[in-house]
Amino acid sequence: MSVTPVKPVLVGDNDEVQRPSREQALEAVRTLLAWAGDDPDRPGLVDTPKRVVDAYGEWFDGYDADVEKELSRTFEDVQGYDDMVLLRDIEVESHCEHHMAPFLGKAFVAYIPNEKVVGISKLARVVEIFARRLQTQEVLTNQIAAAIESHLQPQGVAILIDAEHQCMTTRGVHHRHVSTITTRFTGAFKSDAALKDRFLKLAKG
Ligand SMILES: Nc1nc2c(ncn2[C@@H]2O[C@H](COP(=O)(O)OP(=O)(O)OP(=O)(O)O)[C@@H](O)[C@H]2O)c(=O)[nH]1
Ligand SMILES: [Zn+2]
């Protein structure tokens, strides 16, 4: 099975998109409140558009963040370290592009360095940046792998995301406690079944 490589930054790098003003965003929330059947001018709701717009600013601040910057500082004095670096249980707080509903879970990010490593916090930041954009869990998984791959040229990358989608739990099909697991393996993780297995065992804890 061949897998098409994904460019590191697919979503959110579209400078062509004209952003509406904050005023327009506030008005859009007022419209939604009225559409839902409430009165946007009642005292309890007058500050709601501002709160919602601020919350969106936080949930989607990945569009303004720079993955390249986070991964640009590498450390080359690794003294021959050439085994897996694995970050477990990175919190994932994202929103699906289909419903803008939260999906929440954990990411497991591993790579095998090729003479250079990156600060471990930067890997968590990369997860956060991509998570704070709209996409699917599959695309999020691929984007994280592709960013590490292109900046570190490691011997291999393994990503696993385990998340619960609120568009499935709080609406629509209403199935609670269904978790979705996505994975992406490149290089040595793809070609070496024992290595892949070791990653999966370590990730499970
Ligand atoms: N593959 C994938 N699907 C997702 C993700 N997030 C949400 N979805 C699904 O996207 C699909 C959208 O389906 P549609 O039929 O277009 O939308 P809908 O009528 O709201 O679908 P229901 O959720 O089944 O009510 C649903 O099946 C969701 O469960 C994701 O990250 N990956
Ligand atoms: Zn959804």
Strand composition percent? 15-25%
Low-confidence stretches: 1-12
Reading the helices and strands in chain order gives HHHEEEEHEHEHEHH
The percentage helix is: 40-55%
The total of beta strands comes to 7
Protein name: GTP cyclohydrolase 1
Binding site for Zn(2+): 96, 99, 167
GO molecular function, one term: zinc ion binding
Catalytic activity: GTP + H2O = 7,8-dihydroneopterin 3'-triphosphate + formate + H(+)
Describe this protein's structure.
Its EC number is 3.5.4.16. Pathway: Cofactor biosynthesis; 7,8-dihydroneopterin triphosphate biosynthesis; 7,8-dihydroneopterin triphosphate from GTP: step 1/1. Belongs to the GTP cyclohydrolase I family. This protein is α+β, with helices and mostly antiparallel strands and about 200 residues long. The N terminus is likely disordered. The strands form two sheets. Strands 5-2-3-6-7 form a five-stranded mixed beta sheet, sandwiched between helices. Strands 1-4 form a two-stranded antiparallel ribbon. The protein contains eight helices and seven strands, in the order αααββββαβαβαβαα. It has two domains: about 40 residues, no CATH class; about 130 residues, GTP Cyclohydrolase I, domain 2 (2-Layer Sandwich), CATH 3.30.1130. A hairpin with a 5-residue loop joins β2 and β3. The structure holds guanosine-5'-triphosphate and zinc ion. The site of zinc ion (ZN) has 6 residues, from loops.
